[in-house]
Amino acid sequence: MGLLKIKNLHAAIDGKEILKGIDLEVNAGEVHAIMGPNGAGKSTLSAVLTGRECFEVTEGEVWFNGKNLLELPAEDRAREGIFLSFQYPVEIPGVSTVNFLKTAVNEQRKYKGLPPYPASEFLKMIREKMEMVNIDSRLLNRSLNEGFSGGEKKKNEIFQMAVLEPKLAILDETDSGLDIDALRIVASGVNKLKRPDNSTIVITHYQRLLDYIVPDVVHVLYDGRIVKTAGKELVLELEKYGYDWIKQEVASGK
Ligand code: ADP
Ligand code: MG
Ligand code: MG
């Protein structure tokens, strides 16, 4: 049910208020899209949810799976099952994706009071997930993200999602300049990994991404607030008319 509950969230950077009272509720099993013009605060919202420290929360509450999220350090938010895609993924020379994931999965297990994965079971699980998202083993044995193309980085990210099984994946695709292949990889990953007990928030200003992912709920974020929430038909309206009518509605106080 209510996996994520955001109430009147305000956040600032360098004393400048960016989020001005966000209310949002995401239930388990749902895919939500957050759209909005550049500078609206979309990436700020994902940064605040995952605990990036440059932003100061000045008001409001965030509950995740019954826990007060804002009280948890960023590492624990990840261990609680929040996954944030990176617009610019880090490169880690000398560390393969498989080793990176082994560490991440075992940290998650430790947090839950479970022993580390036995090596053979871990590899079996990795092979299953590889098949599921159709990723090449060569990619997994290379240093993480080093020299990866945009599409390869996205593939890798979707694979990480498949292995870590987050309760909530936040995919912020706004400024990443994804080409159509990379968009398709993200979309098919989100579709394949959709389950009744996990949720996804897809943040984008490209309507195109939503040609491939069908969201259950669509929100428009504008000037630090969610000013509209509707079903997937809202995507078509935005595609047709852009954001200007929403700006006008907000300006006229509707
Ligand atoms: P969006 O993702 O919707 O394009 P952002 O969350 O990136 O919007 O930015 C919202 C506002 O916050 C913009 O006015 C932007 O200039 C400002 N902002 C974002 N990050 C920083 C930062 N690190 N320092 C100062 N201002 C920032
Ligand atoms: Mg931006
Ligand atoms: Mg952004």
From TrEMBL:
<dbReference type="GO" id="GO:0016887">
    <property type="term" value="F:ATP hydrolysis activity"/>
</dbReference>
<dbReference type="InterPro" id="IPR010230">
    <property type="entry name" value="FeS-cluster_ATPase_SufC"/>
</dbReference>
<dbReference type="Pfam" id="PF00005">
    <property type="entry name" value="ABC_tran"/>
</dbReference>
<protein>
    <submittedName>
        <fullName>Fe-S cluster assembly ATP-binding protein</fullName>
    </submittedName>
</protein>
<keyword id="KW-0547">Nucleotide-binding</keyword>
<comment type="similarity">
    <text>Belongs to the ABC transporter superfamily. Ycf16 family.</text>
</comment>
<dbReference type="InterPro" id="IPR003593">
    <property type="entry name" value="AAA+_ATPase"/>
</dbReference>
<dbReference type="InterPro" id="IPR027417">
    <property type="entry name" value="P-loop_NTPase"/>
</dbReference>
<dbReference type="InterPro" id="IPR003439">
    <property type="entry name" value="ABC_transporter-like_ATP-bd"/>
</dbReference>
<keyword id="KW-0067">ATP-binding</keyword>
<dbReference type="GO" id="GO:0005524">
    <property type="term" value="F:ATP binding"/>
</dbReference>
<feature type="domain" description="ABC transporter">
    <location>
        <begin position="4"/>
        <end position="248"/>
    </location>
</feature>
